[in-house]
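Predict the holo structure. Ligand: pyridoxal-5'-phosphate.
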Amino acid sequence: MASRTTDNEPFDAPKTYDLYRHAKQRIPGGVQLFSKWPERHAPDQWPAYFREAHGCETWDLDGNHFYDMSTNSVGACLLGFRDPDVTEAVKRRLELGSMCSLNPPEEVELADLLCEIHPWAQQVRYARTGGEAMAIAVRIARATTDRSLVAVCGYHGWHDWYLAANLGDSDALRGHLLPGLDPLGVPRELRGTVLPFKYNNLAEFQQIIEQHGDQLAAVVMEPCRGYDPQPGFLESIRDEIHQRGGLLIFDEVSIAWRLCLGGAHLRLGVNPDIAVFAKAMGNGHPIAAIIGTSEAMVGARRSFISSSYWTESIGPTAALATLQKMQRIDVPAYVAGIGRQLQDQWRRAAQKYEVPLVVADSYPCAPGFHFNHELNEELRTLFTQLMLDRGFLAGNSISVTLAHTEQIVAHYGEALDEVMAELAEALACGEVQERLRGPVAIWDFGRLM
Ligand SMILES: Cc1ncc(COP(=O)(O)O)c(C=O)c1O
């Protein structure tokens, strides 16, 4: 299974490391997604490439085996990698042909299913990635209302409409956008078109409404990310934007399906005019959906929104298999249960070894922690290094999946115990930096560019 013969030994991955060294010459930045940058996890140590993935297990190009106790593909594979039911459905469709001059019927079946799960919505469009789907949602809102401005809260991808919020004022999205991201290449003319406000800060939102309410096409926000909104926050935003003739768009790209079948808004009891899904919806196959009321989606017909690969069949086929499986199995309850076990393990180990690890007060379906210490980044990197040595891809948060069994969690707990003991020792001896075999992980995206 693994090329390592003994546990807890530094592992070697020459093929995997060589390919990444080469990639950095060939591919600007080395990878396509910030979150999959090895430098974000443990520079010179984190394996950049996978040969194979299954459940929550991964093999790198050298055959090293890891349990994924990290992002599980940035939360995209909620059922686990290569889920057998989704893979089977995709294989069947592949054998019939994935692309054709005609359209895939699965897109209609999927639209019906999405509207059944969301009785407030009547219409559906598709894309293949979250950021792209968000750009479509904003285009639709602008076309429907014939207005330009957008109030925004949260992270919504890499597109011009969103990064415009950082134009001319690098602090505009602090606490919203990933710090350090530069809107270089975004037309300056978009300045002032996107107006950010902070989550749970109604006063900030009110200010935008007072100054620009009648020009707003939409409020674009995640209904929640790590915790519930304050009572009345979402309702007030919905009521205000509706009174001003704009639309409410919920970005459910990351939280949907994980927290609640159909999305966080169903749990929180606030319906938007448009909701956007991606990531977990296809369980690793590219598919995104923009769903909305017939009134809100008027702009989808009027505006030119069209792309060749939105017509392939694998995405909707995978989404149908994924959502149907989620209708059979209560995935949110399962991942929350596993997440609570992980939170308990972290708390117990931190207490046992007196390591300054603080468990985030967030939804257990995506639990996390940080080190409350001046060497926070060094400690996190050393944690990742020591967990890699024990066969785990691990950082300070976990996107739990259906494939994380109690047995795997127990195995992780044993490794965690050893690693916490070593962190405590490194802290006591003042050797945290010395014990790192590579540079400290990079948190600030800006430095990676
Ligand atoms: C809330 C939210 N919206 C949009 C996006 C962008 O999605 P994608 O990476 O598929 O373009 C992300 C990605 O992390 C996200 O978390």
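The CA atoms of residues 99 and 312 lie 5 Å apart. Residues 74, 129-131, 134, 154-157, 222, 251, 253-254, 278 surround pyridoxal-5'-phosphate (CB under 6 Å).
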